[in-house]
Amino acid sequence: MSAHREAMLEKIAALDAENAKAVAGGGEKYVGRHHARGKLLARERIELLVDEGSAFLELSPLAGWGSDFTVGASLVTGIGVVEGVECMITANDPTVKGGASNPWTLKKAFRAAQIAAENGLPTIALVESGGADLPTQKEIFIPGGRMFRDITRASAERRPTIALVFGNSTAGGAYIPGMSDYTVMVKEGAKVFLGGPPLVKMATGEESDDESLGGAEMHARVSGLADHLAADEHDAIRIGRRIVARLGHRKARADAELGAYAEPDLDPDGLLDLVPSDLKEPFDPREAILRIVDGTRPGVGPGANAAFDEFKPLYGPSLVTGWARLHGRPIGILANAQGVLFSEEAQKATQFIQLANQVDTPLLFLHNTTGYMVGAEYEQGGIIKHGAQMINAVSNSTVPHLTVIMGASYGAGNYGMNGRAYDPRFLFTWPSAKSAVMGPAQLAGVMDLVMRAAAEAKGQAYDEEGAAGIRAYVEQQVEEQSLPFFLSGLVYDDGVIDPRDTRTVLGICLSVIDNQPIRGTDRFGVFRM
Amino acid sequence: MPTITRVLVANRGEIARRVMATCRRLGIDTVAVHSDADAHLPFVAEAGTAVRLPGDAPGETYLRADLVLAAARASGADAVHPGYGFLSENAAFARAVLDAGLTWIGPSPESIEAMGDKIRAKELMHAAGVPQLGRLEPGAVTEAELPVIVKASAGGGGRGMRVVRTLAELNEAVRLASDEAASAFGNPTVFVEHFFERGRHVEVQVVGTDDGVVVLGERDCSLQRRHQKVVEEAPAPGLREETWRALHEAARKAAEAIDYRGAGTVEFLLDAATQDFFFLEMNTRLQVEHPVTEQVFGVDLVAAQIAVAEGSPLPAARPEPVGHAIEVRLYAEDPGADYQPQSGRLGAFEVPDVDTELAVGTAAEGLRLDAGFAAGDEVGTHYDAMLAKVVAWAPTRRQAARRLAGALRRARLHGVRTNRDQLVALLTDEAFLAGDVSTAFLGERSWGGGSAGVRPAAAAAALALAEAARAARTVQRGVPVAWRNVVSQPQVTAFEVAGSGSGAEERVEVAWWGGRDGYVLDGHTVVAAAPDAVTLETDGVRSTYAVVVPPGGVGAVDVDGPQGHVELRVVPRFVDPADAVASGSLLAPMPGTVVRVAVEAGARVGAGDPVLVLEAMKMQHTVAAPHDGVVTEIGVAAGQQVAAGDVLAVVEPAEDREEQG
């Protein structure tokens, strides 16, 4: 086994362990209690909801990692196929503090809503939440209003919203079914009211009970808030599927329009051998590309013959650009080859992004960059101008962008290569990735030089010992904060994935993207020349 | 006698096909008659001409001599072959055929009459010196003469027979047998004789000609269930030479005594212990099991019947039987549920490596299939439940049994439950192979069949369904089945499989994982999976399962694997609660008050009969029976408030299965 593979497998094992924490939710005790009540877990509900044998791409599974909250943030979000329709599915995890929302839950939910909006997906909310996690209410209450705004805006955009209410959905949470196009409530399970019996008693003195205030039967027969009364949880999911079946949803480009394609020319398993554990060592991204994109297929027409047609192969060789297909869908690819981006690479990228926009072709960015080149020669050569051109192109491009951070993603390279701030439709990270303003050692070294200069200017003696301690501390902190779990915990990506799943993940994303028409822009910002 | 040019076959199913096959070979035109239920069966399609007999019940169709004769006239037939059953032993019909100037391919009406009345036949045979069992007076049976068997005088095929082991049961048995005989044969006469617990049923094939009686050996038909033959073979195993010689001689005498013409069978009861034998009856027609005689003697008995009928020389037959032939009757029935006849659509019907169909095979060994049905045919319950006869012949009995068992094991029979597993178990049973056969054989053993093959078959079915679902995808076609980036639980595919014996449904769940590396299952390695075939490796052994999945993944999955056939019913993930209530349940259409309950539990009701009256919104609503049946449950009383969807009553549909003729 190669050292690269060994290191990667170790990181994947760690990823599996972190994912398992999200799956475990509130832990054995609460899972047992939930089951004992005859209720299904969030992921059990999802498994029943999606078409048999279809995929489920879970998003932000590590949200909340490194925080005081349970990994996964008491919410499951992801894209599943329901009755042949790609839907954004969200499910509260009631085993984690009753499914209460914390700041990470909110972030994760907003990201799911954004993906649904950008890709034109119907949303299905599997609701069972005790509301806000009160100790963190200050971080939730005001921004949380957006949740309800998003639901009705989705409806206004004719993106159907469906709420299947399994349990508590009270106070503010009551607006989730309240704002949805379709609402299904589980008999003797759903509880939907603005104020419960104690609050009502306090407010008006009225004696009441849960059922009369917010039971499924009441809402189905009296208030009309429930469109369907489900006999049990299975029935609610059955009804939810029937609702989706009747939406008449059409993708902008049907899968049937895609041509035949071949599996990759190189075995995706080889991706494990590719990334050096020391990111200072570059690797050839073509090795990754040929393990991800459709393989060479004999014949004529698009997709035939070559798996990857490189553009400008001789110019700006530190960035590889070219055309390929993935699950039969055309894509343009930009991949770092030597880490550093020079003026040539930036200009090549700018042109390539414009070309993709001319032909309405999505772009895939594969990161392994240490940033734009520095130094007098390069500054004088206009590296800022050229980097700005690339960032301009990336920012204003309107074809869908996908980003995979394979290795390093440092400095403005992260921006130019379409980092999170540039709103790629989806961004996934390999366990080998690192993102920061610069490499931890460089950062610590830069700090050291700056502090040393400051001390010199003030004519003070430089405390070598103290500086070494600070340097080590900074280096360690930056290292930790540049790691995938940490960044995924902050919902700075859509998930950390096993490199061998890259093709499948991107295939799902491209399929999801096809729910909306793709239209490249003809307007960019002023390209400074 | 005139040369026959066009034969009307007054029968159905495999025997109609069998007769027509020989006719075609001889250059004779064929005419089929068929009921409405049989209109699409192969025998109708294969006939040169077909005439519809309106209706389904045998009494309206195949038993209507007048309609059959009219069909013969209308179609220009010059001869009638009755097959077996139905009108084959109806002397009046034979006479009517002859009176109409047509050739009757069978014995004279007088011979039929002589043997038709069992009591008279026994007197005749007694006079001819054919050994027989003394008849007992029902009222004078003594303890020492037990056990006894009560039989219908006019019957055949086991109908109306009852074994009595205590004197106390006798009167009731006689009454029941008499009633059954009256309804089945129109003649209530029954008689009683000693019953051998380990008796064998041995019969001798004869063909009577103008030049005398040709004896074509004997057959053993001891393996029976409810007096219906299941396995037949020729020659009969283990007979001493003097026994079979004496049997053949007795049969010859029997046929000669009534100057018999054509093919007939003289049946004997043989005491397995002593090999003493006794005349039972003579069947004045072709037997179901005639193929085993055909195979060992190399003769076409239908051709022989036609030759006798038109006065031409008999086809040549071997003087002595060569090798051994075994026939099994493949029934659409559930051996685990008291042999209840089954109905349904035959999704697949394939017997592998068949050498000959409906005709005599000439090689030294081979497999013959005489089937009445083909894949896609509907099997109803109007008639006999036999789907096909499968015959193997070989130099030795064990070889024939092995060939037959192997073919049955690999046969693909989908859509209806059959006795196939029981037949395979029988043919591989050591006692059977040793020749230890008696009419009690089947009853002494449990034939529930094993469930060893169910789990791997269910695994194969689950993966085939997953592959079929993958093929039917409209989005994300290139994504591995059941791919998850965060794995939380296996996929679960649930089936119901009819349990052995009681027929109770057993639930089988298959947990499997999909994803990047393909299917993962506990206990098996998945070598290949497709919607129609799945290869699993289990403990280093690879097995391929042929799977037929239902459209849309809902319904029955048929799996044929090394352990045989398993039919699994897919348990749907969801059941609409509206469909989940007991079928026949009457639900309240709206909330209201029960005003009146019109019937009591247990009452028989016809479709549309009022069951109860509900008042709602100041209107009275009559809730009526949706179909004929019995009210098995009344869930409400007058004055009671009900909610919409409440179960008010249950009306179980009347048994729609008719008694078969």
Automatic annotation (TrEMBL), chain A:
InterPro entries listed in its UniProt record: AcCoA_carboxyl_beta (IPR034733), ClpP/crotonase-like_dom_sf (IPR029045), COA_CT_C (IPR011763), COA_CT_N (IPR011762), MCCB/AccD1-like (IPR045190)
Domain CoA carboxyltransferase C-terminal, first and last residues per copy: 267-529
Pfam families named among the record's database cross-references: Carboxyl_trans
All copies of domain CoA carboxyltransferase N-terminal, residue ranges: 8-259
Keyword Transferase: yes
Keyword Ligase: no
Gene Ontology molecular function: any one: transferase activity
UniProt-recorded name of the protein: Carboxyl transferase domain-containing protein
Automatic annotation (TrEMBL), chain B:
Domain ATP-grasp: residue ranges: 122-310
Pfam families referenced in this protein's UniProt entry, alphabetically: Biotin_carb_C, Biotin_carb_N, Biotin_lipoyl, CPSase_L_D2
InterPro entries: ATP-grasp, BC-like_N, Biotin_BS, Biotin_carboxylase_complex, Biotin_carboxylation_dom, Biotin_COase_C, Biotin_lipoyl, CPAse_ATP-bd
Domain Biotin carboxylation per the UniProt entry, residue ranges: 3-447
Residues in Lipoyl-binding domain copies: 577-652
PROSITE patterns found in the cross-reference section: ATP_GRASP, BC, BIOTIN, BIOTINYL_LIPOYL, CPSASE_2
Keywords: ATP-binding, Biotin, Ligase, Nucleotide-binding
Cofactor(s) needed for function: biotin
Stored PANTHER family: BIOTIN CARBOXYLASE, CARBOXYLASE:PYRUVATE/ACETYL-COA/PROPIONYL-COA CARBOXYLASE
Name of the protein described by the UniProt record: Biotin carboxylase N-terminal domain-containing protein
